[in-house]
């Protein structure tokens, strides 16, 4: 049984953005750390699916769940303004694992002043890269 996609709008929010819970669900969805491990091929597929859906040309047999997953991948990996694929380390979905790794090193190597300075520099550089990627 094929799903009726005639009224489906890929750009409409999945959750009500007027509520706090709806906004939390939206940001948890697009910052899901598991999307960091998705292959480049699958990300390119997601971009094609989102663009086709925006044009109203969805391949036959496409399910709503497939389009929602493609939108999740697209939102997590492609810049919202330019549409360009973002650097993996600069994506918001990498912020949690990347920050945890750096914090672990900062907690482990704190005994000497050069180590503290180095790991603070790494942390600030990582944050600057994330900010630059998402500008």
From TrEMBL:
It is found in: Mitochondrion membrane. Keywords: Amino-acid transport, Membrane, Mitochondrion, Transmembrane, Transmembrane helix, Transport. It holds the Pfam family SFXNs. The keyword Magnesium does not apply. GO terms for cellular component: mitochondrial membrane. Belongs to the sideroflexin family. GO terms for biological process: amino acid transport. It comes from Pan troglodytes (Chimpanzee). One of its GO terms (molecular function) is monoatomic ion transmembrane transporter activity. This is SFXN2 isoform 10. The keyword Membrane applies. It is a multi-pass membrane protein. Signal peptide: none annotated. InterPro entries: Mtc (IPR004686).
